[in-house]
Automatic annotation (TrEMBL):
Disulfide bonds: 740-750
InterPro entries in the cross-refs: 6-blade_b-propeller_TolB-like, Folate_rcpt-like, Glc/Sorbosone_DH, Quinoprot_gluc/sorb_DH_b-prop, SRCR, SRCR-like_dom_sf
Protein name listed in UniProt: HHIP like 1
Gene Ontology cellular component list: extracellular region; membrane
Domain SRCR: from-to ranges: 670-771
Signal peptide extent: none
Family indicated by similarity: Belongs to the HHIP family.
Biased composition (Basic residues): 644-656
Compartmental location: Secreted
PANTHER family: HEDGEHOG-INTERACTING PROTEIN, HHIP-LIKE PROTEIN 1
PROSITE patterns: SRCR_2
Length: 781
């Protein structure tokens, strides 16, 4: 590899130079952004001066009043003639600070250039302004360059204008591409919602729960599968000592995909006063595996540490297998503790005549509801008097709902901030067996169908035909070509991003898809939209990123209702690759000061670890800009890297380029196609004179690393599945069941089913997303 680094570096240097020139001289699609580098908003109080932006823009009432005051201060310097000639120009120029595209008009998008004092103008408008009102320029700007050019119309307007007429003032106002759906969530041509992320925490070992204590401190607590819970302060610094450490008791392993471990955490609704919290974890008792629900108290000496001697075991349930362990704990609006158990494991719920899930005398495959208040003396929990099966012979009184396979992550809807519509609903993702994943809304006494049904379809045909099943259907189900392990999420009810209000956001652990549902209030149906990371300039805000690790483990909301999710690059309880991301809508924010809160003070006795993001938002922004809409893909052998044109997404070009016909392409070479950026795409491999695709069976991040390293990148960010980058239908599937250890130089060196041998279809074409910072870039340093 060392011998070819110079060649690779020279190629990349040439690409970078050409792309930089392209960026400098080609127009770039804009995104709404204010001068504070944040999205525009709808003012709380109607503007009185810059009323053209009263519905949506970058000024609140206070800023509007400041601009009005500045306007009158300027106009006081002119006589009646100057007033009548120039009032409109002065008004227009001042109010562009309120434009949704203020950052663009004032050059605030580019951190390497000073912010303009006069917005970027179209040439015709600038000439009119100079002819009538050049004498007003000293009152508008103290820029010495503008002062030098003031007497020369051509030089001044050359300095002030934005040369692309679609993006300068005032023509920008008539650009339908920019003004349509302004203020709404950005959606691409495939109907995919364009959102961004902010990294909040990293270096975590399979973070599978993030909760807050609802005590006014706005701390959040992140639980790791190994049995550690960490405290994070509102500034995202982490306490060096864990909040809870039960690693010695928790049963788990380092095997990828092990479902046992610390699985759930919930704070009592009155935690602020009683200091009680509840945990759900796997234990081994003798030769038996169990799930255990325990109560702990916070330490009387440290508000950031649990009293480990206070544990009281509330409930233990035998687990007949090591999978399908459930794991969700939550307190609903009724104040009771809800426990979500799995069906006991294996496949098809084979326990007993009808399985655990349909057996109301078993606690597995259920939603349980218990009362843990006032349990200092007497029983550790009581049965709520309105539990649905309390009087049914043979049924466990704890059962609230049944027919559950393995609900992974549930949440309580806070309700619409204004109307409280939807408040108290419990949403769950229930992991499927062979075909479907589903989202359910939990209701008292209802049967959720498993094992009779999986999603909307029959699984056990005999049970499914039973007229007494009386099951409730999911609100949404999706097939396994989209993902194979649902991770339930939350209905967004936060303050910061009003467009997201009422949207249920969830994901899939295996495929890494982010998805959303929104209810049609008239029909009661739920509309599905996939969520894509914003491309191009969409996420070009300070601190924002547009990529994440594939394995989506869990979702969360903080004390103020903002939404987060946790994912990891390697699904192992001991891999420190877990990251917490905050979900961001880059198209609209709440008005300034509307979402302000003052956290209660936290007495800290531990050292603090300052948060340092792993992702470089600025670098990713520049890379995304450079490669957005540029039809580059990489072809790599073991020794070199070249480019080819692959503009057509997911389609093989009949007219092959000279590069593709070239006889020197070696067997084992790979290329990425199906995306305009060079660091990601569908994997195609060259074997024995033909290009073909790779099936995603057994496709892991380790396999992706082999590809990315072969292409000259340092890391792999995602092993993409389910033809995320389109189907290579015109090609043969050449490899299936690929299993790499990570040291191989190409996929052919990995274990596989044999060239041309496969048991899959093109909807399972594999892809990768590589770290856009290449090996050759690091070699240049």
């Amino acid at each position: 590899m060392q011998r070819c680094c110079g060649k690779i570096t020279s190629h990349l240097w040439l690409w970078s130079t050409l792309l930089f020139l392209t960026l400098c001289f080609a127009p770039v699609m804009l995104h709404p952004q204010c001068l504070d580098f944040k999205p525009p908003f709808r003012p709380q109080k109607e503007l009185e001066f810059c009323i053209m932006y009263k519905e949506f823009g970058c000024c609140d009432y206070q800023k509007d009043q400041e601009l009005m005051s500045k306007y009158y201060q300027i106009m006081d310097n002119f006589d009646y003639s100057g007033y009548t000639s120039c009032a409109g120009f002065i008004f227009d120029l001042l109010c562009q600070e309120c434009s949704p595209y203020a950052a663009h008009l004032f050059d605030a998008e580019d951190p390497s250039t000073p912010v303009r004092t006069i917005p970027g103008l179209c040439s015709e408008y600038c000439f009119q302004f100079w002819n009538k009102c050049s004498f007003t320029i000293p009152f508008l700007s103290g820029d010495p360059y503008i002062a030098n050019f003031r007497e020369n119309q051509t030089s001044l307007c050359h300095y002030l204008e934005i040369h692309d007429k679609d993006y300068c003032y005032p023509y920008l106002l008539n650009n339908q591409q920019l003004t349509q759906n302004l203020g709404g969530i950005q959606v691409n041509s495939d109907g995919c919602l364009q959102l961004c992320l902010e990294e909040v925490a990293n270096g975590l070992q399979n973070p599978l729960a993030m909760v807050h204590a609802n005590d006014g401190t706005h701390r959040f607590f992140v639980a790791e599968q190994v049995g550690l819970v960490w405290t994070y302060l509102p500034d995202r610094s982490k306490l060096e000592r864990p909040f809870l450490n039960i690693t010695q008791a928790v049963l788990t392993s380092s095997w990828e995909g092990d479902e046992r471990g610390f699985l759930g955490l919930a704070f009592h609704p009155k935690y602020k006063y009683n200091g009680k919290l509840y945990v759900y974890y796997s234990v081994e008792v003798g030769f038996d595996e169990r799930i255990r629900i325990s109560e702990f108290h916070v330490s009387a000496n440290d508000m950031n540490e649990v009293d480990h001697t206070s544990e009281r075991v509330i409930l233990e349930i035998d687990e007949p297998a090591s999978n399908h362990n459930g794991g969700q704990l939550l307190f609903a609006d009724d104040g009771y503790l809800y426990i979500f158990t799995g069906d006991g494991g294996m496949a098809g719920d084979p326990f007993g005549k009808y399985g655990n899930a349909q057996n109301k005398s078993a606690l597995l495959g259920k939603v349980l509801r218990i009362d843990v208040d006032d349990n200092q003396r007497g029983p550790l929990y009581r049965i709520p008097p309105d539990n649905p099966f309390i009087h049914e012979q043979g049924a466990r009184p704890e059962v609230y709902a049944y027919g559950v396979r393995n609900m992974w992550r549930c949440s309580v809807d806070r309700g619409d901030p204004w109307t409280k519509d939807g408040k108290g609903r419990i949403f769950c993702g229930d992991v499927g067996q062979n075909k479907f994943e589903e989202i359910d809304i939990i209701e008292k006494g209802r049967n959720y169908g498993w094992r009779a049904k999986e999603g909307f379809s029959c699984y056990d045909k005999k049970l499914c035909a039973n007229s007494s099943l009386d099951d409730v259907l999911p609100v949404y189900a999706y097939p396994h070509r989209m993902g194979k392990s649902v991770t339930g999420g939350y209905v967004y009810r936060g303050c910061e991003y009003p467009n997201l209000n009422g949207i249920y956001i969830f994901g899939d652990f295996m495929s890494g898809r982010l998805m959303s549902l929104q209810e049609d209030k008239k029909t009661g149906n739920w509309k599905y939209n996939e969520i894509c990371m914003g491309m191009g300039l969409t996420c070009a805000f300070p601190g924002l990123i547009n990529n994440y690790h594939q394995y989506i483990i869990s979702f969360a909301e903080d004390e103020s209702g903002e939404l987060y999710f946790m994912s990891t690059a390697i699904p192992s309880a001991t891999s420190p690759s877990g990251v917490v991301y905050k979900v961001i809508d880059p198209s609209r924010r709440a008005p300034p000061r509307q979402c302000h809160y003052d956290p209660l003070p936290v007495r800290v006795k531990s050292n603090l670890i300052k948060f340092v993001p792993q992702e470089s938002d600025f670098y990713n922004m520049i890379w995304s800009i450079l490669f957005h809409d540029l039809p580059l893909a990489l072809v790599a052998t073991g020794t070199s890297k070249t480019t080819k044109n692959s503009r057509r997404k997911g389609r093989h070009r009949k007219n092959k380029s000279k590069l593709e016909r070239a006889p020197h392409i070696q067997t084992g070479a790979v290329r990425l196609v199906g995306d305009s950026r060079s660091d990601r795409g569908r994997v195609e491999i060259y074997i024995n004179g033909e290009w073909g695709t790779v099936c995603d069976d057994l496709w892991t991040l380790v396999n992706a690393r082999v590809i990315c390293r072969q292409l000259g990148f340092q890391h792999a960010l995602k092993a993409a599945k389910n033809s995320e980058f389109g189907e290579g239908k015109d090609l043969r599937i050449l490899l299936d069941d690929v299993k790499c250890v990570g040291t191989e130089s190409s996929l052919l060196d990995c274990r596989h089913a044999g060239v041309g041998t496969h048991n899959c279809a093109h909807y399972e074409d594999a892809g990768v997303i590589c770290d856009s910072y290449s090996i050759s870039h690091s070699n240049k340093k």
